[in-house]
């Protein structure tokens, strides 16, 4: 399985905020929020498989995957 597309921003160190989009969306949904949060903390926003800039899986994924 290909690695998901991940957006990182903000200073190194500190407690990161991880943003995960819902079905039918992508990390682009969080663009403005990432910019605001990244002023004071590390931020990670990712695209789930098959969404945004992440590759579409070759087969259906299980919940565990």
UniProtKB/TrEMBL annotation:
Which residues does the UniProt record annotate as the domain AB hydrolase-1? 16-59
One MF term from GO for this chain? Answer: catalytic activity
Bilayer-spanning residue ranges: none
Q: Which InterPro entries match?
A: AB_hydrolase_1, AB_hydrolase_fold
Pfam families, per the entry:
Abhydrolase_1
Against Gene3D superfamilies, the record matches this protein to: alpha/beta hydrolase
Q: Name it.
A: AB hydrolase-1 domain-containing protein
């Amino acid at each position: 399985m290909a690695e998901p597309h991940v957006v990182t921003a903000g200073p190194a160190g500190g407690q990161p905020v991880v943003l995960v989009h819902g079905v039918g969306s992508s990390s682009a949904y969080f663009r403005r929020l990432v910019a605001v949060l990244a002023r004071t903390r590390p931020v990670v926003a990712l695209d789930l498989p098959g969404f945004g800039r992440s590759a579409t899986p070759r087969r259906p994924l299980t919940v565990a995957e």
